[in-house]
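WARN retry 2 of 3 for item q-0093 after timeout on previous attempt; input resubmitted unchanged.
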Amino acid sequence: MYKLLSISDDPWTIGRLGGPEAVAAAIRENGFDGIELMRWHDPLPVPGVRIVGRHMPYWPTCLDFLRGNERELLRQFDSMDNARQYYSAASREDFVRQRRAELEEAAAMGAEYAVFHVTHVEMEHCFTHLFTYSDAEIVQAFVDLINEVTQGLENGVTLLFENHWFPGLRLTDRTPAEALMTGLIYPRKGFVLDISHMMLAEGVGTEPEAVDAILKNIECLGDLAKSIRAVHLNSATGAQPLDMRYPADAPYEMRLAESFRYVGSIDPHKPFFHDGIRRVIEAANPEYLVYELSFDSVQQLSDIVRKQDNALKVDAW
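OK item q-0093 returned
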């Protein structure tokens, strides 16, 4: 099992951690085998660090763009210029080409797997919970998209699909998970089990409750549980959701900023301290154990990694 660190290589993140060499040293000193990389358009290289996974860019609101529903895009984004800026694409064809290029880039940097989110949530859904599309509709849309992106693609990268707490792939129900795995033509595929996301999907308030709920969901997946190839290790315990409210006529920029602040407040990427998490990891049996944690310095990283290692009893693994 690889022990990996989730990290972004954007200049702001690397700079606040002391620069590329300091980040590389911290990764080695904390016992990581490599990283799951969130790569940006203007990255800073981190020398001597193995890129094992690549977390692909994520657009929480995507189905209406993929379907070319201009009326809905205008309602959600105020203008088509805003929509094109959000997706960095003018059409579904542009979007598909970009995702394919990113997979080819992931292979070129040596990544063994790439992570995709499978969900659709509009900005007001964050607090209304009045969702537009069902799990089945969202999964089918992603099946169609990924099959288009990967048509004829053979570069060795495994595609892993991450559970979310919003509609789509939540891994709390076997049916959408099975539809995704059977619908995708690409042969190398599986799941990422994100611990915080499943806590939020189940509405559990404590880590012992989370352990019980996640173990139950793994069991309910049956044979599909073998497709869990990676775990994002984190905890949502103690999160303090913001009171996300804005005027009905609030401009797009305000609504977007508020939705991102809200999501950040309920998914804080804290360590999972209860030692029952070891039972979850053993049940999932992933190839890649990814510490997806929030930290502001290399010293803080060392502190939380030590605590997370102790909860897992890493030395006895």
